[in-house]
C-alpha cells in the first residue's frame, strides 16, 4: 500500500467521543433520533436535519468496499438507521445513502453529511463505469469484512491493494467489521485484527450484529446507549479520520504556497 494512505490514519482523539452523554450533546442528538421506527430520523433527498443556526456542515463521499456478503449494505443501513432486511441480496448497481452525524471537535459542533456509496461487489468488478463513478472524488474508502466469515477478512489485502492505487491516494481509509459477537464465536480473532492494524495502519471498527433491533435505539436510558456504543464508535472514527485528513491537506497546501 502507498504511504499516503497511512498518513490519514487516526492518530489522536479530536472528536469528543462522550459528547452525546453530555446535556449539550444529548440535546443535539435528539434532533437526529426519533422514538418511532428504527430510532433515527430519516431524510428524503430534498430534506435535511433541522439544526441550530451557524453550525458548520461538511460533506464527504465514502465508498464501501468488500467481498459480496461482507455486510456493506447492512453496515450502511446501520449507519443511516434504515430498517433492515435480513434477506440475502446482492446490491445491483450503486446505492447512495446520506448519513448526517454531528460531532464536537474541540469546542465546535460540526455536522457531517456522509454520502455513503454502496455498490454490489459483482457490479463493481464487472462494470468499469460503476467502478469509475464510485472512485470519482471519493474522500474515504470503508473496507468491510464480516466477523462471521473469515474469507471476507483474508481477502481485504487484495481489496486494499486494488483501491489504494495512485488515483485514490488522497482518500482516507477505515475498516468496518460486521457481525461482531461479544460472546465469542467470531471467525476473525481480536489478535488477527490487531495484526492487521499494525501491518496496514488502518483503524478497524466493529458493528455488533444485535445492533439491528428495531425497538431499541432511543437516545435515553443506559441500556440503549450501550446498545448503540458501536454505532457511535464507528461514526465518530469516520468523522475524525476525515477531519484529520482535511487538516493535513490544509497544512500541506499552506506549506507549499
Ligand atoms: N444481523 C446481521 N446481519 C448481517 C450483518 N452483516 C451482514 N448481515 C446480513 O448478511 C447478508 C449479506 O449482507 P449485505 O450487506 O447484503 O452484503 P454486501 O456486502 O452488501 O454484499 P454485495 O451487495 O453482494 O456486495 C444480509 O442478509 C445482511 O442482512 C450483521 O452484522 N448482522
Ligand atoms: Mg450490498
From TrEMBL:
It is found in: Cytoplasm, Cytoskeleton, Cilium basal body. Its main location: cytoplasm. Gene3D superfamilies: P-loop containing nucleotide triphosphate hydrolases (3.40.50.300). Transmembrane segments: none annotated. Keywords: Cell projection, Cilium, Cilium biogenesis/degradation, Cytoplasm, Cytoskeleton, Exocytosis, GTP-binding, Nucleotide-binding, Protein transport, Transport. The keyword Cell membrane does not apply. InterPro entries: P-loop_NTPase, RSG1, Small_GTPase. Belongs to the small GTPase superfamily. Rab family. This is Ciliogenesis and planar polarity effector 2. It comes from Nesidiocoris tenuis. The lineage of its organism: Eukaryota, Metazoa, Ecdysozoa, Arthropoda, Hexapoda.
